[in-house]
């Protein structure tokens, strides 16, 4: 199981006629995965949060033994933007450690054939060389605001590796960049920058205010990938990759937060001023992923940033604007 992956394009694992569990199906990534898998008529298993708390070890094992998923996308996680990460450190560390260790261990015990663990680009050192290759892991100190989440995600990918080495489990890991799209969290205290600025620009426009408040200095750069592209990449990795090293999932380009704010304002139709609240943290200066490994496996993104924001704003208008 430690061997390297075969050359580009070769399918290694089929999801056809498999029971595929999307853990975290209610979240942005999980719901995109469900859409993607159902579009190919795969058999998708889900379990509601009210039925199973994934932080419950015995409950998780019992559910997996009963439902017998054969493939697992581990997309369940406690997630949030820079403020939530900074203010809820215990929840970001404990909840993520608990649910990922429970699912990974229960996957081995219940005979899961293949598991894909999802991490995040914040696992890398704060000052990693750009673009960040997979090898940069654990070569420097983490960004302080999201170190708790990052440590949990590093533990998750190491656990998948350890189970691969010790128990020959076909467990792999993927590290997506900053994601956005349908079912994003638009709660300003907990959200990431993209949904926050879409909502703020929209509300400023409809309320006739002439300022859009952007946290930090606007100079940090971020790479954004539409969640439908991410789901497609995850299915590609599940079916085309089997090796110990985690794989980055990125769009290939990044953008300064100030430029992103201007772009969102233009798409939303907000014509006032962008104002920076420098009492709020900037976080990591830059985290552009080197996704050449994924490209070499035959996958590239399809949704450009402008089109993606246009569709994310449409989704917000149809689903959240009135709340
Ligand atoms: O998206 P975001 O919260 O997460 O913030 P990170 C990205 C950048 O946008 C930061 C700025 O420099 C923020 O200061 N920003 C500007 C805003 N205005 C806003 C706003 O209204 N709301 C928010 N949230 N940000 C997260 C990590 O880091 O990225 C997580 O904390 C995870 O652990 C996630 O890795 C993908 O990119 O800084």
What labels would you give this structure?
single chain; 323 residues; 40% helix
Q: How would you portray this structure in words?
A:
The chain has 323 residues and is of the alpha/beta class. The protein has helices at 28-38, 57-67, 82-87, 89-109, 147-167, 193-206, 227-240, 257-268, 292-296, 305-319; strands spanning 19-23, 43-45, 71-74, 114-118, 170-176, 178-180, 211-215, 221-222, 224-226, 247-249, 255-256, 273-277. 40% of the residues lie in helices and 15% in strands. It starts with 18 loop residues before the first strand and ends with a helix. The protein is globular, with a radius of gyration of 19 Å. The strands form 4 sheets. Strands 2-1-3-4-5-10 form a 6-stranded parallel β-sheet, with helices on both faces. The structure holds guanosine-5'-diphosphate-beta-L-fucopyranose. The site of guanosine-5'-diphosphate-beta-L-fucopyranose (GFB) has 26 residues, from helix 3, helix 6 and strand 7.
């Amino acid at each position: 199981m430690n061997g390297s992956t075969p050359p580009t394009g070769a399918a290694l694992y089929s999801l056809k006629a498999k029971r595929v569990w999307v853990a975290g199906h209610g979240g942005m990534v999980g719901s995109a995965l469900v859409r993607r898998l159902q579009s190919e008529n795969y058999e998708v298993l889900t379990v509601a949060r009210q039925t199973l708390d994934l932080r419950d070890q015995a409950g998780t094992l019992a559910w997996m033994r009963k439902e017998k998923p054969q493939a697992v996308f581990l997309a369940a996680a406690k997630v949030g933007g820079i403020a939530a990460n900074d203010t809820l450190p215990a929840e970001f560390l404990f909840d993520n450690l608990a649910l990922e260790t429970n699912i990974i261990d229960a996957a081995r015990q219940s005979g899961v054939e293949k598991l894909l663990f999802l991490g995040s680009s914040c696992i890398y050192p704060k000052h990693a060389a750009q673009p960040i290759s997979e090898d940069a892991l654990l070569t420097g100190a983490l960004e302080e605001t999201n170190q708790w989440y990052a440590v949990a995600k590093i533990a998750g990918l190491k656990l998948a590796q350890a189970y691969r080495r010790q128990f020959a489990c076909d467990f792999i890991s993927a590290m997506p960049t900053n994601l956005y799209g349908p079912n994003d969290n638009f709660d300003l205290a907990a959200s990431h920058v993209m949904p926050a600025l879409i909502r703020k620009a929209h509300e400023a426009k409809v309320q006739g205010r002439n300022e859009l408040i952007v946290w930090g200095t606007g100079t940090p750069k971020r790479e954004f990938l539409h969640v439908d592209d991410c789901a497609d990449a995850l299915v590609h990795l599940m079916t085309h990759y089997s090796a110990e090293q985690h794989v980055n999932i990125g769009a290939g380009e990044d953008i300064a937060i100030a430029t992103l704010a201007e772009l969102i304002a233009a798409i939303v139709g907000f014509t006032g001023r962008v104002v920076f609240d420098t009492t709020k943290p900037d976080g990591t200066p830059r985290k552009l992923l080197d996704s050449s490994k994924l490209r070499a496996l035959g996958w590239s993104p399809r949704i450009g940033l402008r089109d993606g924001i246009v569709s994310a704003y449409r989704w917000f208008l149809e689903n959240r604007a009135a709340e």
